[in-house]
Structures are given as structure tokens and as C-alpha cells.
Write a structure and sequence with these properties.
This protein is of the alpha+beta class. The protein folds into two domains: about 70 residues, no CATH class; about 130 residues, no CATH class. It has seven helices and nine strands. The strands form two sheets. A six-stranded antiparallel sheet has the order 4-9-8-5-6-7, covered by helices on one side. Strand 1 and strand 2 form a beta hairpin. The longest helix is centred in the C-terminal third of the chain and has 18 residues. The radius of gyration is 17 Å and the shape is globular.
Length: about 200
């Protein structure tokens, strides 16, 4: 199984070196070891929260599984152009950065809030009343798939982008920021990468 840091590096597109580069040239299903293309399905291992690469055949085995060791992560993100989140509501979450994702954790039996940082995905205390107020304005949030789908928010600068996103896409963003952050403010490169990430997500949503 991949380590969390290896997952971040992989999703961020970091280039491995030496022997790691030769192994990465041929990605394999982590269940049956068959080769998989660069665009392939992922599972979430519930006990470790690791993201596991799988072939289409293995992915289908978990298509309708509700409880078990693995959950199949959806393929597609959905843009929410009419999402309602006034500035005051966002500020009630008291997050240190204007990027975050929210999902329901079955193992912990509660909604979780994370924001990307140079250290990786950082958990933030999620005020329950703030989340409930958000759901009351956006009832479709009640349909988030536990563990594998998240509300992904980008309010950096003038952006006001909201998506229902697969959890692996959220960690792809985390990995991108971790790999490219420089200095105190991140540097221009990381913000260009973040803008590119959301542009690509929107184009494919």
C-alpha cells in the first residue's frame, strides 16, 4: 500500500528518481498487480485512510459495497455555480486559509474539515452550527457520499469556486501545495499550480 506522503507526491505529479522512476513508469493495481493506465480508479482503505490504485475490474467489485475494508472513490467532480456561502458564513469556520474540503468520516462519525498546508492536509475544528447553517442553505450537501466525496472550497483571492469532489482530488490539491510551496507565502509557482488545478477541475466537472 502507498504511504500518505507517497500518495501526495503521486497526485501532485512529482517526478521520482532512479529506481523509483522505473517503478513509477508502470503503475499497477494494488489488489491484483495488473498494469493500469495513468488515469485509473482509486479505493479508500477505511482503517488507514490510504488511497489505493486499482484496475477497472477490481474497482467494479466495490461498486455497490456499503461497508467493508475499501470504498470506491467516485470518478467525477461536480461544480456548484449557485452555491450559497456569504463571506460571514465562511468566516464562521475560522480557517487560516481560503482553501478547504469538508467530508463525513464514518470511522469518526462526524463531519471533518481539512485545509491544505505545506505540511500536508491539516485538520481544523469544524463548528457544528456553522456546517448546519451551510447545509440549510445548500440542501444537496446532505447527499455527499461519506468518506469518499467532499465539499471542496476555493475562495483564494477573488475566486469563489465550490465543488462536490472525489476525495482523491482533494488530496491531489494537498499534494500539489505541499510539493510546490516555497517560503512564507508559497511563492508564485504554487498559486499558479492552484489556479491550474481548479481550472482543470472546472473544465472536467
Amino acid at each position: 500500500m502507498s504511504s500518505p506522503l507517497a500518495n501526495l507526491r503521486k497526485f501532485a505529479g512529482a517526478k521520482p528518481k532512479g529506481e523509483s522512476l522505473r517503478r513509477a513508469a508502470v503503475e499497477q493495481c494494488e489488489l491484483c498487480s495488473i498494469r493500469v493506465p495513468p488515469q485509473h480508479r482509486h479505493l479508500l482503505e477505511m482503517t488507514t485512510q490510504k488511497i489505493v490504485c486499482v484496475c477497472d475490474a477490481c474497482a467494479l467489485r466495490f461498486q455497490d459495497v456499503v461497508e467493508g475494508r475499501f470504498k470506491l472513490i467516485p470518478r467525477d467532480a461536480r461544480a456548484l455555480p449557485d452555491f450559497a456561502m456569504p463571506d460571514a458564513d465562511w468566516e464562521s469556520f475560522a480557517l487560516p486559509i481560503n482553501l478547504a474540503f469538508f467530508f463525513y468520516s464514518t470511522p469518526r462519525k462526524k463531519m471533518m474539515a481539512y485545509y491544505p498546508s505545506p505540511a500536508g492536509a491539516t485538520e481544523s475544528l469544524l463548528p457544528l452550527d456553522a456546517w448546519e447553517a451551510l447545509v440549510s442553505q445548500n440542501p444537496h450537501l446532505q447527499k455527499l457520499q461519506p468518506d469518499v466525496e467532499a465539499l471542496l472550497v476555493n475562495r483564494a483571492g477573488n475566486a469563489r469556486n465550490y465543488f462536490i469532489a472525489p476525495i482523491d482530488k482533494c488530496y491531489e490539491l494537498v499534494g500539489t501545495i505541499r510539493m510546490h510551496w516555497r517560503g512564507l507565502s508559497g511563492g508564485q509557482e504554487v498559486w499558479d499550480k492552484i489556479e491550474s488545478f481548479f481550472s482543470h477541475l472546472k473544465a472536467n466537472a
